[in-house]
Fold this protein.
Amino acid sequence: MIFAIPSAVNSKGDSSMKFVWPVLLVIFRALYFVYSVWCLLFPFAAIWFFLTLSREDTLMGLSTGRWQQMLLGAFVLFGVGTLAVIHARRSPDDPNPFQSAFLSWFGTLRGFWNREAGDQVKLNIPSGYLVENPPAYRIGGANMQEILKNIKEGDILLRGYDGYVDGFMIRHASVCSKKGFQPGWFTHAAIFMGSLNDKDQQHVPEPFQQNTGYFKQGENMVIHAMAKGVHCQDLLTFCRSDYLVVLRMKPGLNGLDAKTVIADARRSALEKIGKSYDFDASDTQSFSRFSCSELVYYCFRSVREALQIAPLPHALYPLSPLNKTFALLKRVTIVPDDFYALLQHGSVECIWQDPISASKHAVPSKKAA
């Protein structure tokens, strides 16, 4: 984003603008600093709020008025410190460092505003937030082109993101073991369907055959389960993520016919379009609803023994790494990293993965022929 304020035409106006930029820097940068700290410390701020309601005069031994004075002092110190740092970094080529600093920073701000929440959210309440210099998805166009060249029907895709709260929770949903918490990496799973056509549409439950929000024909499609339920999505849209891996069942695994296995997996996925999402992530028996991993597991259930995959006891380890043994929400389920662990069993091969995931797991990718 580019933002500019027209310069005053006379010298007096130009001179006055030199004082405007420092003021804007102090006010807006300091305000954003307070906003960022508030977001970071929101749980503590919420506790503070309720304590203040119950104790009007003092908080942690100090009067609430004293706390307000301390916060105001911190705000002023940050503003003055901002000016000092920018002034120290001025250069001969930058005659007004405060102007360039403010406009350069202002152009990095991006606002995200929720105008229309999904039906699953239930409460359609507007909300928004502001981010300074938000990073783009790590998986870019060149990566997608390479994936398109190598991916085949029946491949399993795992992806992950930076920053999402639910991703943090999923990565802390570790397999229960004597070793305690073992952090995960990927947060979502899907099955690549290839091209979807009229013939595929016949396998979709009738109420969803004409619903383009759940099924649509086209090339390079995936099927996965999210909050809205099981549905189709274009591969390129799915690939917009920070971390991604493509896995494939090894050819000739235990004498299995790969074409038959993939055909069964595709049909299983199509037949479950429209099924609701399993927010408990615990339905690995009746398969009446699905989490993303449960759906992929269901599609390959006929070859689960050959793949060496089965639901395992998992739990949420919220206090890791401070306490790697305290766990909550213990249940038997499947998570995305359980599919990645199949690489160790040798039942699948890694067709493509992003460099960060590769360096983290030290598993080489094998380009498809």
